[in-house]
């Protein structure tokens, strides 16, 4: 019992650390366009994003419940606390590596891959809840393509509506409008991403037999929302630089179109209780907007690098989590 207690406390600590890191790693994507177009100063954008992420994180719990029960059955886990701890360590390591190099990888992919990898290392592939796991993977794969299409359509619509307006006047109006879209983007980020740590902590509480259902306790919601808000306040300027400028040259009208498109996809996923990668969705929306503006204006070399990171994140995280689980199992 003493070992289970220690492992559960460690899971809670590392889950909140993951949310903190997620705050400065992924939230940078939510405000990247508004910073790059100078609609908001970086410090103001970061503080606004922190507040809106906190509010969004407290508003919904559906995604947290999906993480809790749809990858593996927390009530059937053996060595549950150890599996979850290994998954968190793997996810944190990958997030820090990609943050250091300024690569907008997916915290969702690394967390879900890590949970699956650690669970398989413990009990084999039969432990996976295949129906729920495949549903989550489908959401992660489909959402970027939806964001690309919606971004393309949104920008095409804006071009038709504002075709007779002056470029200077239109961009000036959209720079003001972008303050609202950046706030919306940060709110939707909180509704989806912050819940992943809530789901992880709830899994650990169930595995330790401290909880008998998949309800997300209030203290878990507040702790995860606070961790993400604090992480956001630190800022992630390396990611902002990649997403906000290296994919394409972004003007306020482009930034507003990308923000609205990605917010629609992320919030849509939240309402049907599915986790998506906010990084994938936002980057894809920017690519869609850029394609509608001018296909050659999108720096596809950078886009390919980002997509490659998306592809390798899940399997690398799964293998890394499996190795970490086997190493931890030697000590516990």
Automatic annotation (TrEMBL):
Identify its membrane topology class.
Multi-pass membrane protein
What protein is this chain from? Inorganic phosphate transporter, PiT family
A Pfam short name:
PHO4
- TM segment ranges: 44-64, 76-97, 109-128, 140-162, 218-240, 260-287, 307-331
| GO biological process assignments | phosphate ion transmembrane transport
What highest taxon heads this organism's lineage? Bacteria
Q: List the GO terms this entry assigns under cellular component, sorted alphabetically.
A: membrane
* Predominant location: membrane
Question: Could you state a single Gene Ontology molecular function term?
Answer: phosphate transmembrane transporter activity
Task: Tell me the keywords, alphabetical order.
Answer: Membrane, Transmembrane, Transmembrane helix, Transport
Locations listed in the record: Membrane
């Amino acid at each position: 019992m003493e070992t289970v207690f220690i492992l559960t406390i460690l899971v809670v600590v590392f889950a909140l650390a993951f949310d903190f890191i997620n705050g400065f790693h992924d939230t940078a994507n939510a405000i990247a366009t508004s910073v790059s177009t100078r609609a908001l100063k970086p410090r103001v954008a970061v503080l606004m994003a922190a507040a809106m992420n906190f509010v969004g994180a407290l508003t919904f719990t559906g995604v947290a419940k999906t993480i809790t029960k749809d990858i593996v059955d927390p009530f059937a886990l053996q060595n549950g606390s150890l599996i979850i701890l290994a998954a968190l360590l793997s996810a944190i390591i990958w997030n820090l590596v990609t943050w250091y190099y300024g690569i907008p990888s997916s915290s969702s992919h690394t967390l879900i891959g890590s949970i699956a990898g650690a669970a398989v290392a413990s009990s084999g592939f039969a432990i996976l809840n295949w129906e729920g796991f495949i549903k989550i993977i489908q959401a992660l794969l489909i959402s970027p393509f939806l964001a690309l299409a919606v971004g393309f359509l949104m920008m095409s619509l804006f071009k038709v509506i504002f075709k007779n307006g002056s470029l200077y006047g239109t961009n000036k109006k959209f720079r003001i409008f972008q303050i609202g879209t950046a706030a919306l983007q940060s709110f939707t980020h909180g509704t989806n991403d912050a819940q992943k740590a809530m789901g992880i902590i709830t899994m650990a509480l169930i595995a330790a037999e401290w909880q008998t259902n998949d309800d997300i306790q209030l203290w878990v919601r507040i702790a995860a929302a606070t961790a993400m808000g604090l992480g956001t306040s630190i800022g992630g300027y390396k990611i902002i630089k990649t997403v906000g400028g290296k994919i394409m040259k972004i003007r306020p009208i482009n930034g507003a179109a990308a923000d609205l498109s990605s917010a629609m996809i992320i919030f849509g996923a939240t309402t049907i209780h599915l986790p998506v990668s906010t990084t994938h969705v936002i980057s894809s929306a920017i690519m869609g907007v850029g394609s509608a503006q001018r296909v050659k204006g999108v720096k596809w070399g950078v886009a390919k690098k980002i997509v490659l990171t998306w592809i390798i994140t899940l399997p690398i995280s799964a293998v890394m989590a499996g190795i970490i689980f086997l190493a931890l199992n030697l000590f516990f």
